[in-house]
Amino acid sequence: MLKSIELPTVALVQRRDGVSQPTDSLSERLASLLESPSLDAELDRDVGTEERLIHLARDLARAAYPEDRTTDRHTAHWIEHSARSDFHRALLLVYRQHTQIPPAGRPTYQFHPFICRMMRELEGPWERDVLRRVRKTAGISLEDLPSDPKEFAGWYQLAAFNHPLYEHDLYAFLASDATRAQLEWFLRMECAGEAAFDDLVALAQVGTRGEVKMEMASNYWDEMGRGRDHAVHTHLFHQLIDDLRIAAPDANELPWEVLSGINLMIWSCIHRRNAYRAQGVLGAVELLAPQRCTRVVHGATRLGIRKKTVVYYGAHAIIDIGHAEGWLQHVIEAQVREVPDARLGIAEGLLARVDASLDYFDFCLAGAGRVT
Ligand SMILES: [Fe+2]
Ligand SMILES: [Fe+2]
Questions:
Q1: How far is the CA of 99 from the centre of ligand 2 (A)?
Q2: Does residue 104 sit in the same domain as residue 226?
Q3: pLDDT tens digits for 206-223?
Q4: Domain match, 19 and 80 both
Q5: Ligand at shortest distance from the CA of 319
Q6: Which of 57, 177, 182, 290 could pair with 368 in a Cys bridge, judged by C-beta atoms 3.0 to 4.6 Å apart?
Q7: pLDDT one-digit tens code per residue, 225-244
């Protein structure tokens, strides 16, 4: 859950003469700025600060997502991992302004012009990479995608199930081979990845109407445990963390392969220009959840963990079968019937989500394998 990610609050490095000296990590500098009681006062203190930070963001985004490269697998030799991780920590800090209510007494800078500029600088190169990667899949254009709403929904489902992510080795490993320490390491990563789905569905439905909005409302109500406090999905996830005494990781422990998946979901849901992409992203989550949740439950049961502890996964292994069917019929199909051009955004959202999940699963399989 996103709220369990506590980004590090990093103070500016003190020089020997007592004057604060900024680090060259954008996420650290941004974290310090966002903690200040007045962002305006901080920026006014030194007239060049804003421009320097914007340039730092521009350079970081270009280093993380070079113009002449497109991400394929997370192990590609040209990827600057430290730049990407700093990039996604910084972007998550910006996105948190849109998704979290700050603790009492702390300011929020959601639509501060500096934060808006920062978001634009960071999103540009990353978004270009995401969409170039998506278009490597043949037929991602309005001319090539099926125009009949039902056929399009069928295409959408098959595109998810034919992606290399489906039946990923990570889940066979978790189900059959992982040790308890390896499974718990994976569940720590999941603390970050299970980003408050309820809020994302709420954000995604803004501006939709009719059948689409109704399905999202029903999905949201399920997230809320249909009004039963103990069945709220985020509570079920907390039960897992509490029972296993798992400590949610700090964002500075998390690499870009984890953070980019969270940022992708928020990116799709907070911008109205991405409304159809959000439908593609969230539908992919529903479609792929039953299979992966079933494997996690198998692994946990094999290792002697009580079913009640992993009820979050057990519940989603079943509920999300219905959610996927509902989403296909009442969001994807209904949206395309209403707005035929929505097909492109929906297709892009689906593929962007499964590409990001592939990086995450690859990373988790390699990472869990190193846990002894
Ligand atoms: Fe859920
Ligand atoms: Fe669901």
A1: 20
A2: no
A3: 999 999 999 999 999 999
A4: yes
A5: 2
A6: 182
A7: 999 999 999 899 988 999 99
